[in-house]
Design a protein that fits this description.
19 helices; 3-stranded parallel sheet; 47% helix; 513 residues; flat; Rossmann fold; 14 strands; alpha/beta; 3 domains
Length: 513
Amino acid sequence: MVGANGSGKSTLLRLIAGELETEGGFANPRGKVSIGNLHQEPRFDPAHSVWEEALTASREVRRLEKTISRVEAQMGDPKIYVDENKLARKVEEHAQLLEDYTKMGGPGYEGQMRATLLNLGFKEEELALSVTALSGGQKKMVGLAKLLVTRPDLLLLDEPDNHLDTDGKAFLESYIRGYACTVVIVSHDRYLLDVVADEIAELEFGKLTIFPGNYSEYAFEKEQRLHRQEHLYKVQQKEIGRLEQSAQRLIIWGRSRDNEDLIRRGKNILKRIERLDKVEKPITERKTMGLELLGWRGSNKVLEVNGLRKGFDGADILSEVDLTIWHGERVGLVGPNGAGKSLLFRHVLGQEVADAGEIKLGPSIEMAYYSQEHQTLDYERTLIDTIRQARAFSEGAAVNHLGRFLFSYAQARGKVRELSGGERSRLQMALIMLSGANFLLLDEPTNNLDIPSAEVLEDSLGEFEGTVFVISHDRYFLDRVATRIIEIEEGGAVEYPGSYSDYQAAKTGAADR
């Protein structure tokens, strides 16, 4: 399922899952269908460890276990086992429960859950971590593990690739391709949709249109349909114009000659035009966010990190990290989830205290930070107040600025918590534009952004006068933006000159040797 941010994709998934009620029509599964919904931003009990949270997926398994025990007890009741019909019904019910129990992964449930978490990249010791200590990608993997073990008939995945590292995306692609039941996936990752999709459902202006094939086939067919629609629209408009002119002439002649027959003929033509099945004017150009990054030069040496070390519970996450970033560079920071990329950012921002080493910023460097999980936003504040807190704007000026980022007046007056993930991403972009910073720290900035918005960001970063340090697993984005790649590997930083493709080629060459 594709569509612009805010078009209603997540809402539609929640309607299908039964989490929201329709205001008209219906969204009901046919027959007895189990549904699993992976939300765009999984919410966990902050008091849970990874293992405790994972086991919450077993509520249905636990319910089935209790029901099976109750039915088995009933089968041993003399009132039932001496009655052939009653016993047959209980045996049939018991068999169905066992089938459901097996389908839900009941036998050996805990063992399956542990194996799934380990296959998804968690280490045994990480299962005891609090869910609050997890990165965005790790949280997504916990949510995915809960669904994989329960194996629903209908799997709803809302941007499951967001925050995932390269290995995680490869696993997700392989899993979806091999899934025995039905999958509906919302994603802006063109590569992922090319690999896994059998058809594309486009949600646009409140309407759903189905295109057969993968994303590339959809993009081609969409373009062809737009061209056909534009041609038909022009032909029809030309014909309507000709008929309208004819009708007006007849009416004018009839009135000037007091001829009711001419007037009636003219009005009949106008009625014919009203009854025509109108071809809608195609929208060939979509409005995109008006992001302009107006940074300035500042210091030549932007950032210097020497011997940085940070660990938790006696284990180093970052060890002896050394790196230097110079003015004008676009540095991509890569590595598996949990390697310490966001942790390094927090040190640069002064939000963490290192165990050893030092971090130096150039004397005329001003930073702006984009958070992958939108922690920089106050969810209870209105969008207008959010903008006015960043800049001394009048309410009208704040609304105008928000309009550049595709927010309506009603949204501007609403609260941040009412926005979708993509809309919160655009709001962060609006704040970064106001910051006037010359050093941007961007943590997964393309997550949640639709394709047109990601392209605007790529173009803006290309024209930005300052310096960019960005965490991303978006291969296309890094190829367009990055001039150098730094990989966090075994706690240290390894540098690779060039784009992401250059980095991949270097890694592949090293592996071949």
